[in-house]
Every structure is written in structure tokens, then in C-alpha cells.
Specification:
HTH_AraC; Rossmann fold; transcription regulation; Homeodomain-like_sf; Arc Repressor Mutant, subunit A; Class_I_gatase-like; two-stranded antiparallel sheet
């Protein structure tokens, strides 16, 4: 099994901790087809001597301490209490050692401050709750602090934005490990989107934009129905009932990204589904997702997923998933 260690410290918020446990801890074999032994063995770890209070509501006394990180494949650091500046030296040493031996390290919300204190974010892009990004930049000037995304995947070190963005990060870990089909099943079980659009800039207090009639959902649904062909901003704006300039401004304010980048991500996501669930050639997948050719698919797929379409299919194709739909070009 893939061992996931989740260090908690005094005052860790219950909600942020629960997002990790909700996605990674339950046995998903019945719904996903992934055998229990191939899923996650989640271990709650005391990041400092316990018992430890979670918020004001509960007390935990995990049997394992920071030494448990020595056998973890992934470490997901829960947030500390608000405003904490000192972190246990034993925990920081264990994080450094786990990373050095090849463990994947992640943080939820202000858990990024713990990773930064361990030196694991130096020279890397990272994110934390929008209300704490300035403080993270001030305390740790060597960190490339991001401000508008829900999570950052820098390969072996990942960070998430505030609170519910921990769900997004954990679903992303499932997607990396088991593919988009399994991540989608887990998301549906938790009644959340498999992948939220935009970034935490949407949730920073700001004036409410004037949304054009038919609204966000209808506009995005329309575009999802056009993934197999080129779509320009002018045509999309007409479908949304507004001018191209107003549409582009509204789209960025609403989703945190541009229409072109959103479409590219949706096309890549559709390509992932087809590569997992069908026997279509990569060339045919590219055509059905609006990329035209396999060469046209390769670069955006590599940018978004971190691997090539061929390698993705080898990892997450029908044989690994134990069967699935099949179609031909």
C-alpha cells in the first residue's frame, strides 16, 4: 500500500484535516475498482508531543510521532493553528529527511508555513490561504509565492490554498496516482467537482461582477460541447450573449483564467478520459479533443499532466483499470 503520513500539531483545524481524510482514507475498492492494497494507508501522526487539540472541538493522541515519516511514501502536512511561527524541530527534521529519501511532500492551507520553515519551498512556487500569502512571502522571501491558484504541483512538493482547496489537492494526488476516472468517482462520492476551475482569487473579497445572461454554467457547458472543433472568443461571446471584450473580462473575473487556457485544459481533460477508457489511437483522441493531430496534443498534454499521452495511457489505460469502454476511430 501507499503510506500517507498526516502530521498534525496543536490547534490544527478540523475541517482542513478532514479534507485529507475524506479523500484518501476510505476504502474505495468497491466504487473505483482499485484494490484496497493499491490504495492509501493513511496514518495520523503527532507532529509534537500530544495529546493535541484540534481547534476547540476535539483532542487526538496519535500513536506515531515524526519518526513515522521515515516510512511514508507521501506526507500531507495539515495546517498549524493561526499565527504560529515556531514549529517542532523534530517535525522539521523528519520532513527534510523524508523529502531527501524521495517521499512526496504536500501541505494543506497554511501547512505551507511548516514546509517553508523546513526549507522545502526555497526556490519553488507555492501557495497558501489568500489571507496569508503576504505573510508567507515576508517570512520566507526565497519562496516563489503564488496568489491566484487553488494548488501548486511542483513535482515532489505540492501546496494548496485555503481550506477546501485541500480537497482539490488531494483529488489531484488521486488523479496523479490512479487517473482521472478514479479521481472523478471519488469526487462524486464526496459531492464535489473533480476539478474546480480558476483559483482562489475568485474568493478574495471583491466587487461582485455583472454576469451576462445566460450565466457561468451555461456558457461553460456550451463550450464543453464544442471541444472537437476550434472555438474563438467571438463565437463564444455570441453564444454567451455579450461582446468579445466584455466576455473576456467577465470570464477572467469569474474563472481566474482566460477562455483559451480554460478550453485547453478541458480538451486535455477530455483526452485523459478517452486515453483511459477507449482504444482510440492517440491521433483519433487528438482529433476528438480539438487538437487536430497527435503532435498538436502532445505539448498541451505534457504541460497540463506532466507526461505524454502515450505514457499516460500505459499508466492509466483500460488494462490497469480492469476493463472499460472501447471504441474505434
Amino acid at each position: 500500500m501507499h503510506t500517507v503520513a498526516v502530521p498534525v500539531t496543536e490547534g490544527t483545524p478540523m475541517f482542513e484535516l478532514s479534507t485529507v481524510l475524506e479523500v484518501l482514507a476510505p476504502d474505495r475498492s468497491a466504487t473505483t475498482g482499485v484494490p484496497r492494497e493499491d490504495w492509501y494507508d493513511v496514518r495520523l501522526v503527532a507532529g509534537e508531543p500530544g495529546p493535541l487539540r484540534l481547534d476547540r472541538w476535539a483532542v487526538v493522541d496519535p500513536p506515531d510521532g515524526p519518526e513515522a515519516l521515515a516510512v511514508a511514501d507521501t506526507v500531507v502536512v495539515a495546517p498549524p493553528r493561526d499565527g504560529r511561527v515556531d514549529f517542532p524541530g523534530e517535525l522539521l527534521d523528519a520532513l527534510r529527511a523524508a523529502h531527501a529519501r524521495g517521499a512526496r511532500i504536500a501541505s494543506v492551507c497554511t501547512g505551507a508555513f511548516v514546509l517553508a520553515a523546513a526549507g522545502l519551498l526555497d526556490g519553488r512556487p507555492a501557495i497558501t490561504h489568500w489571507s496569508a500569502v503576504d505573510e508567507l512571502a515576508r517570512r520566507h522571501p526565497r519562496v516563489d509565492v503564488q496568489r491566484t491558484v487553488l494548488y501548486v504541483d511542483d513535482g515532489d512538493v505540492l501546496t494548496s490554498a485555503g481550506s477546501a482547496a485541500g480537497l482539490d489537492l488531494c483529488l489531484h494526488l488521486v488523479r496523479r496516482d490512479h487517473g482521472s476516472r478514479v479521481a472523478g468517482i471519488v469526487a462524486r462520492h464526496s459531492v464535489v467537482p473533480p476539478h474546480r476551475e480558476g483559483g482562489q482569487a475568485q474568493y478574495v473579497p471583491t466587487a461582485v461582477p455583472n454576469l451576462p445572461a445566460p450565466g457561468v454554467a451555461a456558457s461553460l457547458d456550451w463550450a464543453r460541447g464544442q471541444l472537437d472543433r476550434p472555438v474563438g472568443v467571438e463565437e463564444w461571446a455570441r453564444a454567451a450573449g455579450t461582446s468579445p471584450r466584455t466576455f473576456a473580462r467577465w470570464f477572467r473575473d469569474t474563472t481566474g483564467t482566460t477562455p483559451g487556457r480554460w478550453l485547453a485544459r478541458e480538451r486535455v481533460r477530455r483526452a485523459q478520459e478517452l486515453l483511459e477508457a477507449t482504444d482510440l489511437s492517440v491521433e483519433s483522441v487528438a482529433g476528438r479533443c480539438g487538437f487536430g493531430t497527435a503532435a498538436g496534443l502532445r505539448r498541451p498534454f505534457l504541460r497540463e499532466v506532466g507526461t505524454t499521452p502515450q505514457e499516460y495511457r500505459r499508466t492509466f489505460g483500460r488494462a490497469r483499470q480492469g476493463g472499460g469502454a472501447s471504441s474505434t476511430a
